[in-house]
Amino acid sequence: MRTLLLAVAALVPMFHAVRAQELVPNGGFEQVKGKVTAPDQIGRAVGWEAVTLGYADLFSRDASDPDVGVSANQYGAMEPAEGDRYAGLFAWKDDGRFDAYQEGRQDPFAPGWNVYAEYIQVELVRALEAGETVRVRFRAALAPLSDRAVSGLGAYCSPVALHGDHRRFLQEKAQVASATVMDRRGAWVEVDGTFEADGGERYLIIGTFPYVGFDATRIVEGPDNKFAYYYIDAVSVEPVIN
Fold first, then answer.
1. Least confident range of 58-62, 124-128, 193-197, 223-227
2. Which candidate, 136, 124, 135, places its Cα nearest to that of 201?
3. Is the model's pLDDT at 224 over the cut of 50?
4. What's 92's domain CATH number?
5. DSSP category for residue 120
6. What is the extent of the structural domain holding 209?
7. Does the pLDDT at position 4 exceed 60?
8. How many Cα neighbours within 13 Å face the side chain of 159?
9. In the chain, how many domains are there?
10. Are strands 57-60 and 85-93 parallel, antiparallel or unpaired?
């Protein structure tokens, strides 16, 4: 028995020595620059920012505005997956023209398409290396007051920071995304996957990426607010160590 205990003890330092490096700073949105006082303040989470003119939110247990509180806020009531804060974004907000898209009468990426979507982005600790396999994961929860749900919610690693002077879907193709409609309201679900880096990817963007597949579902009968809003927490990018 004594020999076994010594062997186990010797293995512990070795395990920590090969542990993967976390490349997302502030993946739980816990580090902030001042108190959250209103919607559209994702920029108060250290390292994070909105990508387009569709601003995203930061929810906090000590927020001074109940619209962005934890657990109750303007989109429902939800405890964080970890800590005291989480982000939130519109994955899709219907403007009434989606039927035309489904019938082939409107290209969702045409300049006239006005579907509203939001994205958040953070700079990684270092750039990814060519041929490196990385695991990307985050927790997402469909807000309790959302009447729509979507697939295609995912993460894209980019060599440059993205900024768009619009509120539409991004046209980039996410390396990791949900292939099924995420319709579990008020429950954290993990989006998780791996990919091989081209090299030089330095920024992580989270939101809806229709080019990997997109479907939308109405999940209520009667009045419909026509949006799919998701809380985001526990964001991680780690090299895969074989």
1. 223-227
2. 124
3. yes
4. 2.60.120.260
5. E
6. 20-239
7. no
8. 6
9. 1
10. antiparallel
Domain-located, residue 99: yes
Q: Can you tell me the distance from the alpha carbon of 74 to that of 71, in angstroms, rounded to the nearest whole number?
A: 10
**What local confidence, expressed as pLDDT, does residue 95 receive?**
64
Give phi and psi for 160, each to the nearest 5. -135, 155
Q: Which of 152, 74, 140 is nearest to 115 (CA)?
A: 152
Contact 69, 59 (CB under 8 A): yes
Residue 114 has pLDDT above 70, yes or no: no
The DSSP annotation for 37-99 comes to: -SSS-GGGBTTEEESSSS--EEEETT-SSGGGBSSEETTEE---SSTTEEEEEEEEE--S-HH
Distances (CA, A) of 70 to 27, 137, 205, 231: 17, 22, 24, 11
What pTM value is reported for the model? Answer: 0.85
Q: What is the pLDDT of residue 242?
A: 75
Between CA 13 and CA 30 the distance in angstroms is 28
Radius of gyration from C-alpha coordinates of the chain: 19
Rounded to whole angstroms, the Cα distance separating 207 from 118 reads: 6
Residue 10 resides in a domain: no
Q: What CA–CA distance (Å, rounded) separates 172 from 52?
A: 13
Helices (H) and strands (E) in the chain, counts: 2, 14
Identify the three-state secondary structure at position 107: coil
Residue range 17-34, pLDDT digits in tens: 445 799 999 999 999 999
Spatial CA neighbour of 78 closest among 57, 48, 93, 94: 57
